[in-house]
């Protein structure tokens, strides 16, 4: 890692670990305004390093979510703490490496620099000038960078030594494997309202009113914001926009490749060093010894690596005739390519496209009209804003401009109609935040439209009077009462089902034999009589944990694996439906199967990674506690201010 914080290389290697500063034993300086934001032992962390770390974390967040963050937003969600924690972790490892005398030679550092793509020139080789220029742009001096690389390697040596012996215990892995691969035989059935012996009694008004009050949250009208808005979208102006035929023909000609396409094929290409090697590979495919994907894997490639996509006969050059001679998916070749002899896997035939201008005219007209309408709206946006700034009301905009006036009773849980203004996320965002008396502003929508809005009134959340929702209350009460009675019936049938498969009550023949012999009796004891067995429902054999039963909620399967012993029956309430599940038999996992070994490896890797992460966390915390970690909050605040 690095003498003054943390490098990009180590962030990638330790990306799994994101620790907060809590528990690190970090204390604040009483003040100061130095350039260093903190230190662990003798290793200091500078403000520029913190700024680079924070930018890197923000860029990583953007890459994962597609959302740009401002510095304030980054601090709100704790990204600055992530950057700080990584810097302090790196500094703790560097301090320990220094204490132990762990380092690497110049050769290792030089190899890393020379092999880095960031410093390669146009010929793909290390470029000394590019190296100096890149570091200069990042504000890093060459000695500092080379020291950082040296410490990266030293920290990795320390990290590998710390975690080398950490592996998942075999007993834990086998226990988890047995749990995952266990299967069960069950019977299941669902109880519906038809199973009730009597219909649900008619509720009186007193019962319904009590239910209305007890479940007020179900019958409460949400806060409603009464909003007036004015808006215009390209679709509103589409029919009024004039588009001449020449413009449509020009548009058609500019996209002729889209409307006029020759026959194409979906093709993958695997290149070989010699004609003989390509011919031998084709012979192996013909003998069904391997398929095309396996051939690629033998070369260390995947199908994605060799995919050519959609290609025409002309695109394939000299190989075009061989590939296009195939009338169904298959392998052609050997045939020449610009890289050498190759085999071509043809996976699909795409028919030629021939759409005339007349056939495309209507679609082109809509597209051109919408595009022109967007430009018109964009050109008028400034005048709309000027009218609002001059005191024009929304009604004035609707009268004097193409904007249309509307009103809406808007709530957070009402998405509105797909073609209405509330379908736009921009409108929903501003509708939720606008206040009475706010000055109207013009906002842009993703399709090129614009809108402005005014909050007229807010109706607070309130319980809807019973008289207005009596039918809803009755329906809700009936559903609940039916569900309650079904659960009670299910419990009765559960007891009956378990009794039917339990040993019969009374003395067994073995128990009565000595008594009978004592009084000279010779007759045998009567066989026990089991109660009549109720219908247990549908049978499922070898149900896997996480398996699937058509039409049954997944929660039923998961709870079926919580039944302790064969013969037991469980009442399962899932998705407001009632099920009876009887466990018939438990099948232990087949840990010798090929699939089991793959799962075992996955469990071992996952548990080992988790253990290593925990060990690494405790280790770095211990290092910081021993060396002492300090943070200069004044310097941190100053660095944050500079990021604005």
Short description:
With 644 residues, the protein is of the alpha+beta class. It is found in: Cell membrane.
Overall geometry comes to extended
- CATH architectural category of the largest domain: Orthogonal Bundle
Would you tell me which CATH topology of the largest domain applies? Answer: Triger factor/SurA peptide-binding fold
CATH class of the largest domain: Mainly Alpha
Please report the distance between the alpha carbons of the first and last residues: 28 Å
The biggest beta sheet reads: 4 strands, mixed
Percentage of residues in strands: 15-25%
Can you count the helices? Answer: 23
Percent of residues in helical segments? 40-55%
Arithmetic mean of pLDDT: 84
Order of adjacent strands in the largest pleated sheet: 1-20-2-3
Instruction: Tell me the total number of β-strands.
Output: 20
Content-based structural category: alpha+beta
Instruction: State Rg.
Output: 37 Å
Runs in which pLDDT lies below 50 for 5 or more consecutive residues are: 1-34, 504-532
Number of domains: 4
Q: Looking at the chains present, what oligomeric state does this protein adopt?
A: single chain
Could you characterize what this model shows?
It is a single chain. The chain starts with 7 loop residues before the first helix and ends with a helix. A hairpin with a 5-residue loop joins strand 14 (443-444) and strand 15. It folds into four domains: 8-165 and 610-642, Triger factor/SurA peptide-binding fold, CATH 1.10.4030; 183-215 and 475-505 and 532-587, no CATH class; 224-237 and 372-460, Chitinase A, domain 3 (Roll), CATH 3.10.50; 263-351, Chitinase A, domain 3, CATH 3.10.50.40. It has a four-stranded mixed β-sheet. It is extended, with a radius of gyration of 37 Å. The chain has 23 helices and 20 strands. Helix 2 crosses helix 4 (79-100) and helix 9 (205-214) crosses helix 19. The protein is of the alpha+beta class and 644 residues long.
């Amino acid at each position: 890692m690095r003498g003054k914080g943390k490098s990009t290389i180590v962030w990638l290697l330790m990306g799994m670990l994101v620790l907060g500063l809590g528990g690190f034993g970090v204390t604040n300086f009483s003040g100061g305004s130095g350039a260093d934001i903190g230190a662990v032992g003798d290793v200091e962390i500078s403000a520029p390093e913190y700024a680079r770390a924070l930018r890197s974390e923000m860029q990583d967040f953007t890459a994962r979510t597609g959302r740009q963050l401002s510095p304030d937003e980054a601090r709100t969600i704790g990204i600055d703490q992530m950057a700080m924690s990584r810097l302090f972790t790196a500094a703790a490892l560097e301090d320990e490496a220094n204490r132990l005398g762990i380092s690497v030679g110049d050769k290792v550092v030089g190899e890393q620099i020379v092999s880095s793509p960031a410093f390669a020139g146009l010929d793909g080789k290390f470029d000394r000038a590019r190296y100096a220029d890149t570091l200069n742009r990042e504000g890093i001096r060459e000695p500092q960078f080379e020291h950082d690389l040296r410490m990266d390697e030293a920290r990795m040596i320390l990290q590998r030594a710390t975690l080398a012996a950490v592996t998942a215990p075999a007993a834990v892995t086998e226990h988890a494997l047995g749990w995952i691969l266990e299967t069960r035989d069950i019977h299941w059935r669902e109880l519906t309202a038809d199973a009730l012996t009597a219909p649900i009694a008619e509720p009186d008004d007193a019962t319904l009113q009590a239910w209305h009050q007890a479940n007020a949250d179900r019958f409460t009208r949400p806060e409603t914001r009464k909003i007036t808005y004015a808006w215009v979208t390209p679709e509103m102006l589409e029919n009024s926009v004039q588009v001449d035929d020449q413009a449509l023909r020009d548009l058609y000609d500019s996209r002729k490749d889209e409307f006029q396409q020759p026959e194409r094929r979906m093709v993958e290409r695997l290149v070989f060093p010699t004609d003989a090697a390509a011919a031998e590979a084709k012979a192996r495919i013909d003998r069904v010894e391997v398929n095309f994907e396996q051939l690629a894997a033998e070369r260390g490639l995947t199908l994605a690596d060799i995919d050519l996509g959609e290609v025409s006969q002309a695109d394939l050059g000299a190989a075009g005739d061989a590939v296009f001679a195939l009338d169904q998916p298959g392998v052609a070749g050997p045939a020449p390519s610009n890289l050498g002899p190759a085999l071509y896997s043809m996976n699909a035939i795409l028919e030629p496209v021939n759409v005339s201008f007349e056939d495309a005219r209507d679609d082109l007209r809509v597209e051109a009209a919408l595009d022109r309408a967007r430009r018109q709206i964009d050109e008028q946006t400034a005048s709309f804003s000027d009218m609002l700034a001059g005191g024009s009301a929304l009604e004035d905009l609707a009268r004097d401009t193409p904007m249309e006036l509307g009103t809406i009773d808007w709530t957070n849980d009402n998405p509105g109609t797909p073609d209405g203004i509330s379908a736009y996320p921009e409108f929903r965002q501003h509708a939720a935040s606008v206040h009475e008396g706010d000055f109207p502003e013009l906002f842009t929508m993703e399709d090129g439209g614009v809108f402005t809005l005014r909050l007229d009134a807010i109706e607070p959340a309130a319980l809807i009077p019973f008289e207005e929702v009596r039918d809803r209350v009755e329906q809700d009460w009936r559903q609940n009462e039916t569900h309650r009675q079904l659960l009670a019936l299910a419990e009765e049938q559960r007891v009956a089902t378990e009794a039917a498969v339990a040993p019969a009550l009374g003395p067994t023949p073995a128990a009565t034999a000595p008594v009978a012999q004592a009084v000279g009796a010779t007759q045998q004891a009567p066989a026990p009589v089991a109660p009549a067995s109720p219908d247990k429902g549908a049978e499922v054999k070898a149900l896997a944990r996480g398996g699937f039963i058509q039409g049954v909620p997944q929660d039923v399967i998961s709870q079926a694996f919580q039944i302790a012993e064969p013969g037991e029956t469980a009442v399962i309430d899932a998705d407001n439906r009632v099920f009876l599940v009887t466990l018939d038999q438990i099948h232990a996992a087949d840990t010798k199967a090929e699939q089991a070994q793959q799962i075992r490896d996955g469990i071992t890797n996952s548990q080992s990674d988790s253990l290593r992460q925990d060990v690494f966390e405790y280790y770095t915390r211990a290092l910081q506690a021993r060396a002492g970690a300090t943070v200069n909050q004044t310097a941190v605040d100053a660095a944050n201010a500079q990021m604005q």
